[in-house]
Amino acid sequence: PPPTSLTTESLTPAAISLEEPESSTRMRAAIVGLVRNSDLFGLRMAMRQIEDRFNRRYNYPYIFVNDVPFTDEFKKGIRDMTKAKVQFGTLDHESWKVPEWINATRYEQVKRDARYPHGEKDSYRKMCRFQSGYLHRHPLLRDIDYYWRIEPDVEYYCDIEYDPFAFMHNNGFKYGWNIAMTEFMDTIPTLWNTTVEFVNSHPEMLATNSLWEWLVDANGDYNGCHFWSNFEIVDLSFYRSSQYQAYFDYLDRSGGFFYERWGDAPVHSIAAALFLNATQIHYFDDIGYFHPSVVSCPANSRFSGKCVCDESKSFVQNGYCIVRFKAIKQMLLNPNSTESVHE
Ligand code: GDP
Ligand code: MN
Fold first, then answer.
1. How many A from CA of 13 to the centre of ligand 2?
2. Where are the domains of the chain?
3. Is the pLDDT of residue 330 over 80?
């Protein structure tokens, strides 16, 4: 028999309860994903890592949405991963359709001719349109102010020892990202021109200290830089603003989600870079992350700290878009500095 002095209390080290944040400090926030039933394994892997690296201490709820009903197997498999609340929802037809102003003949031809990733797919385009314009308006997200996007097959390589939602709030950040790179330009031939048309008719929407310069090359054309939206932590008041909504509606009307294959990543990113101030956009360079096929490690994380992150595979932070982001943001914060970002 166990020694009588060993009470249940002494089996619960104080350190464990100290790790739990005060419930009052918890934000109205959730970890959110649009996913398929077939993503069960990959999503369980992603959740296992988010739970171990962060959420077992914070218990933020999860919200998953799908264009078809989730199976019981899926719901059980996901609920088994966490003690946090999990909600499952389906989308309405309005948010997952080819709009009536899309010409069917032209669209079919586009899908036949497309020579870029997912170019032949109807579902991928609906997915991108949904994540651009509808996810933040889904009824299950009504009571949350921030979301952290999750996708199947992503990995988290480092402990996250603070609450990124509270961090965003306390610093006035509206958009947080951790991977940026250039887009396949074949998927967005007219996105930039359509954006410029929109901004020309709504010049008051441009933020005073926007990062627009980050988006353009020496000729004033879009350089393709965008934040990867498979990881993004966002103050949803940004996407829910009348400005963002007007921008999305304008893009949607132009048909580019279907006649081309506009991704939600460049759409979100261009909106953030134009309509937010640079000070409202945060680079989470401390979050070790993987989305097939890109690794992003914090500096010096291979042999130190609470990371298992292979820096020898992490190149993206030295790439054009991230180096340029840091330089331009720095310049906007210190306008008197002599450094120039012009090529
Ligand atoms: P990638 O990251 O651009 O390669 O695209 P993914 O295949 O990872 O898709 C992005 C996200 O949208 C993932 O969370 C997918 O599960 C989800 N997704 C993609 N297509 C569909 C679809 O047809 N239905 C649903 N419900 N989710 C989808
Ligand atoms: Mn993905």
1. 39
2. 25-333
3. yes
User: Is 232 a known active-site residue?
Assistant: yes
**152: CA distance to ligand 1 center in Å?**
8
pLDDT of 15 reads 40
Tokens, residue 305:
């700290």
The per-residue pLDDT for range 96-127, each reduced to its tens digit, is 999 999 999 999 999 999 999 999 999 999 99
Q: pLDDT by residue (tens digit) across 216-272?
A: 999 999 999 999 999 999 999 999 999 999 999 999 999 999 999 999 999 999 999
Q: Region 194-206: what's the mean pLDDT?
A: 97
Q: Ligand 2 (ion): which residues have CB within 5 A?
A: 151, 230
pLDDT in tens, 168-182: 999 999 999 999 999
Q: Which of 161, 300, 162, 154 is nearest to 228 (CA)?
A: 154
Give me the pLDDT at residue 339, please: 55
Fold category of 25-333 in CATH: Spore Coat Polysaccharide Biosynthesis Protein SpsA; Chain A (3.90.550)
Rounded Cα distance, 55 and 61, in Å: 9
pLDDT value of residue 336: 79
Question: Ligand 1 pocket, 34 CB below 6 A?
Answer: yes
Q: How far apart are CA 233 and CA 173, in angstroms?
A: 9
**What per-residue confidence (pLDDT) applies to 304?**
85
168: phi > 0 → left, psi -120 to 50 → alpha, else beta; which? alpha
